[in-house]
Amino acid sequence: MIVFVSLLRTLRTHLRRVSWPVVASALALHMVASWLLLAAAGEPKLLGADAFVYWYVTTATTIGYGDLAPSGLAGRYVVALFVMPGAVALFASVLAKTSATLIAFWRRHQMGRMTYDEMRGHTVLVGWNGRESVRLVQLLLSDCNTDDEGLVLVAEGLAENPLPDRMRFVAVESYADFDGYERAAVTRAARLIVHCQTDEQTLAAVFAVMAQLVGGERVHVVAHFNGETGARLVRTHYPHVECTRPLHVDVIARAAQDAGSSLVATQWLCAGGATQFSVVVPDGAQAVSAARVAEAFRRQSALWIGYLERGAGEPVLNPRDDARIAPGTVLYYLAEHRIDTAHLAWPTLAAEAA
């Protein structure tokens, strides 16, 4: 009795929602009933499996080619009074259910309810700041290093994806929401940018993210703070997290002391024209002098400006010619476009140094 009541309740739920099982069952029953009625009416041309399915579909879709049709009066009444009304109504139900399913799927993407477990090597952007974030997305997508793997936005307070044609969206109630970062697949991302509206939100997001990156995942994390307090706290606990701060006051002072400095600083970091890039010395390369590295960049019409050794906290700018550049060192340079590591010819540099 309990099983029967449970089945009845389930059936009522499906009927009330007009679910796919209900639509499929009604369509199958109507096709069987139509075949039986046509058989009773003496319509042998319509009873073959291939012929019946073809004729039923063309009838249900109101196409009606006319190459197959009932020949007797009884068959015509069966088609007119039973087959056509039921088939057309069921076909309309299938179209409505299909459209509703596609719209619901699109809305889940638009409203940030999807999970992106299949993504690898992508960029995760945490926080949304209007036009500033739009510009950030444009810069990320304009660089060949970050434009192919995909971009996922994790943000609170947004009802819909602000840029649905450029990135995916995960909505969260709080920046400390672990589930949101799991749905954005942060452990499989290549880079993560935390740029929230307040330092408190940025701090909560950084600690929530780093709590998930406990397995040694190689994710480059960049966090932007307006004040020094939050940045110092993050650097204390996670030295490898790159913390950035606004440079407006520094740029104003430098522009007043050295005319045109603000233009140079802006050009260094903006897309278009000569821009700052970075490249990592391959692990299998031999250590070479800074003079050799500078010469390799000049051959590529690039200007080498400094380096950051593995494990070091601060980069070295305008290095001495006799400085040794070891494998794993990050090199910073100015160029019109990003340079492939292979074009710098590390084996050749090592041979020349020898």
Got a strand count?
A: 12
**Largest beta sheet: what is the strand line-up?**
3-2-1-4-5-6
What class do helices, strands and sheet pairing give? Answer: alpha/beta
Helical proportion, percent range: 40-55%
CATH superfamily of the largest domain: NAD(P)-binding Rossmann-like Domain
How big a fraction of the residues is strand? Answer: 5-15%
CATH topology of the largest domain: Rossmann fold
- Per CATH, the architecture of the largest domain is 3-Layer(aba) Sandwich
Domain Potassium channel: 52-101
InterPro entries: K_chnl_dom, Trk_Ktr_HKT_K-transport
Protein name: Potassium channel domain-containing protein
Keywords: Membrane, Transmembrane, Transmembrane helix
Write the layout of secondary structure elements.
Elements: H1 2-17, H2 20-40, H3 49-60, H4 73-110, E1 123-126, H5 131-142, E2 151-155, E3 168-171, H6 178-183, E4 191-194, H7 199-212, E5 220-224, H8 228-237, E6 242-244, H9 248-257, H10 261-269, E7 275-280, E8 288-289, H11 290-299, E9 303-308, E10 316-317, E11 324-325, E12 330-335, H12 346-353
Parallel strand pairs: 1-2, 1-4, 2-3, 4-5, 5-6
Antiparallel strand pairs: 7-12, 8-11, 9-10, 9-12
Domain Potassium channel: 52-101
Pfam families: Ion_trans_2 (PF07885)
Transmembrane segments: 20-39, 46-65, 77-106
